[in-house]
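Hi V.,

Quick status before I head out on leave. The structure for the redesign project is tokenized and pasted below; the design run finished overnight.
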């Protein structure tokens, strides 16, 4: 009998929030926005309406701060692992704080909240009265694919380990 069969990983996924703008593209966008603001601010400054230039500079700072907050939020992720003995979900916040849940795959059921127009809105793992939403930051289509893969992995885990 192979003891490693119980520890074998059936499914593993690292879920990360989607960000369509990388660091390099962000700096290019920031430079373009700054140049645009400069061209708009200079005539006002020359006409003696210098507070406009100050407020336009504040717009640049606010623009930068908003994108930095967005990139900071993108550091969050979830790791989902399924083995014959457990379903483990680890959620890591943007600050690096980790929370971990462990479930027995035999007792887990997936609850889906779907919308006809938008697709899968919420995927919740339930076991013995406890519920945990997974993949909340995923797009509905991506969440749907993840739900299918997780469901197949849980079915395989319920069948038990494969020896040999």
């Amino acid at each position: 009998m192979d003891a490693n069969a119980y520890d074998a990983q059936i499914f593993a996924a690292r879920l990360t929030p989607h960000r369509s703008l990388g660091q390099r593209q962000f700096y290019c966008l920031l430079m373009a926005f700054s140049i645009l603001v400069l061209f708009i601010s200079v005539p006002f400054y020359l006409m003696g309406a210098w507070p406009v230039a100050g407020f336009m500079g504040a717009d640049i700072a606010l623009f930068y701060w908003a994108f930095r907050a967005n990139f900071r939020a993108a550091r969050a992720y979830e790791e989902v692992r399924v083995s014959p003995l457990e379903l483990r979900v680890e959620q890591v916040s943007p600050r690096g704080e980790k929370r971990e849940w462990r479930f027995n795959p035999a007792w887990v059921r997936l609850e889906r909240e779907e919308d006809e127009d938008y697709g899968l809105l919420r995927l919740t793992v339930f076991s013995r009265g406890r519920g945990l939403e997974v993949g909340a930051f995923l797009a509905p289509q991506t969440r749907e694919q993840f739900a299918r893969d997780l469901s197949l992995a849980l079915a395989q885990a319920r069948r038990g380990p494969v020896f040999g």
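Above is the designed sequence. Strands lie at 11-15, 77-82, 87-92, 98-103, 109-115, 119-127, 130-134.

G. will cover questions while I'm gone.

Best,
W.
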